[in-house]
Amino acid sequence: MKPKKQHEVRAVCNVVGDLLGAQAAASVVVDLGSGKGYVPQWLAAALGATVVCVEGEAAYTASAKKRLAKIVAQIAKREPDRAAALDAAVHHVVARLEPDQPCPPLVPDTLASAASTTVLMGLHTCGDLAATVMRSYVASSFHALALAPCCYNLRTEAGFPLSIGVGAPLADAGVVIGGNERNTSVHCVHKWADAQFRENELVDRIEALFVRAAAGYMATAAAASTSAPLPSGSAAIWRDDALATARRLAPDADPTHLAAHYDSLVSAAGGSEELAFARYSALYTLLNVLAPVLEMMFLVDGAAYLHEAGIHAQVREVFDGILSPRAHMIIARRSPQAPPHLPSLAAGRVTSES
Ligand SMILES: C[S@@+](CC[C@H](N)C(=O)[O-])C[C@H]1O[C@@H](n2cnc3c(N)ncnc32)[C@H](O)[C@@H]1O
Q1: The whole model's pTM is what?
Q2: Residues in domain Methyltransferase (predicted)?
C-alpha cells in the first residue's frame, strides 16, 4: 500500500472504529465501492467486525480476495483459529449500484440477527456513488454512516444537489453547477498552498499545467476549424512542449495548424508567452482559492440531505490534505433508539452480481 492509501485507511478505520465503539466485534460494516478491500479487511482483522465488501468491478473483488487469502495464510501460521475467524468475517458482493433504483438486499440475512451495530461506509466513492451511498443510508436503518466522497467532477444531475437546503437557493438564484465548477472543485488547494513555499516546485507545476491547457486549447481549436493563421514561430518558451502534447491529443490534426493555434493563444494574451503564462497562473490561483468553497458545497449538500431526513450528520476533515486532497468525510448517526436489526440496502439498483 502506498503512503497515501496507508494514511487514508488508518484515518477511516479510526472513524469507523469510533462509530462501532465497544460493540465492534458484534458489528456489521458494509463498504460500498470497496475496491481492493483495504479498509474492511483491517476492520475485520483488527476489530473483529463482520464486513461486507460491495464492489462494482469483479477484477477488484478478485484482488481483494487474493489479498485477504494472503493475510489469512500469514495469520494461520501462528493463530489458526483467528485466521479462520477472519476468513469467515469478510463477505464479498460484486454489484454495480445505480443511483435512484431500488436494489435487493446485499447483506446475507444470517448476519442480521447477530449485529449490534451496523455501519454503512465508503472511502473515496467517486462521482454519483457518494450520492447513492447517502440515499441507501437514508432508505435503510443502518446505525451510522462514514463516507469520504471524491471525484466531484464526475457528479451528474442524479448526484447533485441532493438537499433542498442547497438545491433550492441555487435554483432560486438561477445558479447551475456545471462542468467548470465541478472541475474546479477537485483542485488540490492544500498541495498548491504547500508548494508555494517551494517556489520552483510551484512554477514547475503551473508550467506543466499551462502546457497541458495550451495543448488542450490547440487540439480543440484545430478540431473546430479548418483553417488557421500561419504560425509566426516567435513564441519559443513552451511552444514545442505544448505542440508535442497537442499532437498526442489530436494525432490527426495538421501540426502546422496546431502550432498556429498556440501562436493565436499567445497573441490573444497580449503577444508574449510570459503574459499568457501570467494570465494562466492568475487563473490557476483563483481556481485553487475557489476549489474548497465548491467542494464544501458538495459536502454540505450531503450533510443537509441527511439532516432533512432527520439524521444527525457532520462534515469532518479526516485526512491530511497534502497526502490526500479529498480530505473530508460525512459522518452520520441515527439516534440510539434506531432498531438494531441489520437492514437491506433499499436504494441503488444492482446491475451485475456474482
Ligand atoms: C476510488 S475507488 C476506492 C476504492 C476503495 N474504497 C479504496 O479506497 O481503496 C472507488 C471504487 O468504487 C467502485 N465503484 C464506483 N462506482 C460504483 C458503483 N456504481 N457501484 C459499485 N461500485 C462502484 C469502483 O469500481 C472503485 O473500486
Answers
A1: 0.83
A2: 4-153
